[in-house]
Amino acid sequence: MKKQFVASVAFILVTALFTPAQAAIDEDAAKSLARKNDCFKCHAVDKTKKGPAYKKIALKYKGRADGEAALIKQVTTGPKVKLEDGTEENHKIIECKDQSQIKNLVGWILSL
Q: Residue 4: pLDDT above 90?
């Protein structure tokens, strides 16, 4: 009985160590939401367009305690942003009521 208990605890610990803390990112769903909202009009994954590349955004916010929250706020509230050419405009608000889809989009950006 003691061996079974130890084996069970060991299994739980090993499983916990190798299970991601965050749900898996659905890259296709994130890209689909970005396309639906014309995000790729101003952003690309690895090159600067009207707005910064998603990889540049990821570098800025990745590892910050408030990184995910800051990006969610960016895409849901439409703040004024400074564009690569120095001009300013209001950021487009993502047209999506499902917070898990928005969180998935932001998670995908941060994963780049």
A: no
DSSP string, 63-92: T-TTHHHHHHHHHHH--EEE-TTS-EEEPP
Q: What count of other Cβ atoms lies within 10 Å of the Cβ of residue 86? A: 6
Q: Judge whether 58 and 89 are in contact, CB under 8 Å.
A: no
**pTM score:** 0.78
- For residue 90, the cross-strand partners are 80
Determine the average pLDDT of the residues in 92-98: 96
Contacts of residues 70-73 at CB distance under 8 Å and 24 or more positions apart, as own/partner, are 71/106, 71/109, 71/110, 72/102, 72/103, 72/106
Give the list of residues 6+ apart from residue 71 with CB closer than 8 angstroms, or none. Answer: 57, 61, 106, 109, 110
Q: Tens of pLDDT along 7-39?
A: 444 455 444 444 444 569 999 999 999 999 999
